[in-house]
């Protein structure tokens, strides 16, 4: 160790040999003696100073770089934060927009479904009311029936078969209508490119509900049309043209023309060509338009049916003594005459009833052979006449209902025995009453 120390001292001695510094001032020479220790101390101080300057310079340079790096990092973080804040704001705006759209479409969908539901409910209620009225008429007629117990020659089977069976199964038609309605409603309501699952699901469910409503409406429409066809068949069977009744009603629609028809032999009715000015799905619009007009037709036909005299005027056991048409004169048998009514014989003073609701047009004695006579106006062109009664129970201008007693069977006027002469007029022309009575039997038996 001492050898190493001695070696170091010799190296230092060579580097820091003793030196003298001379300084001359005002003719005086002075010198400063620098020993090895002093030189080492000065070198150490100078080294430390140089190191401090170098450290300070490096520190200043690197500190600026650090500050710049920190500032860059801060700006980067601020940019990232602002980007995230912008993305969050954009996401919030999108969600808020979707919420607004969802709320608006939900309200619109609910409003549309409610409107359609109200339309369906009104249609169903209207149809139920008509069904109940027809059912009431059927029950009323069934309590009377045909007291004679005669089997009708033109049986109900002819009229039932004439309506026909559905060529296409109901389920397949409903499936086709549902598919068509769903496809059209989807294309009408769903916006292409919208990727919001909740909104898309809501639109799909709304479209499915709309399709089911259309199927229900189509089902009701079929029932309404079937009921109208059945009533039209009854009216046509009596000899009264149902197309003429519909034409006279001038049923409103997008396009309705009054056809020129003959009330017994002509063919015609409303010519309807619906358009779609509202922009709604055409399947729904066309179905609503058709069912609206079908309901109007059913209302007209049902109203006509209620005013049609379908019952028999004698509700007690009776027999028919003379049919409608050409016959020999019952008083003067030597000649033929046209009989424009139906003669029904029964027990003396059997009740004579109104065969449909109406207003008594005349009640009194007629000297043209009818004797005690009542004439009732039922509306829609229908009038009934009841003759040869023993006494009357109504007066002119009085309202009567179906099966209200208007008098009692007798033998007044030009008559050979107690009976009721019964006539039905439509548009001032006599029609065979048996066809109406048979049609009435069909109403309650079907």
UniProtKB/TrEMBL annotation:
- Which part of the chain is the M23ase beta-sheet core domain? 338-433
Q: Does the keyword DNA-binding apply?
A: no
Concerning InterPro entries, the annotation shows: Cell_wall_metabolism_enzyme (IPR050570), DUF5930 (IPR045974), Dup_hybrid_motif (IPR011055), M23ase_b-sheet_dom (IPR016047)
Q: Tell me, which GO biological process terms does this entry list?
A: proteolysis
The keyword Hydrolase is annotated on this UniProt entry: yes
GO molecular function, one example? metal ion binding
Outline the extent of the DUF5930 domain: 3-319
Membrane-crossing ranges are: none
Q: Which Pfam families match?
A: DUF5930, Peptidase_M23
Cofactors needed by this protein, per the record, are: Zn(2+)
| Keywords on record | Hydrolase, Metal-binding, Metalloprotease, Protease, Zinc
Q: Give the matching PANTHER family.
A: CELL DIVISION PROTEIN YTFB, PEPTIDASE-RELATED
Its recorded name reads M23 family metallopeptidase
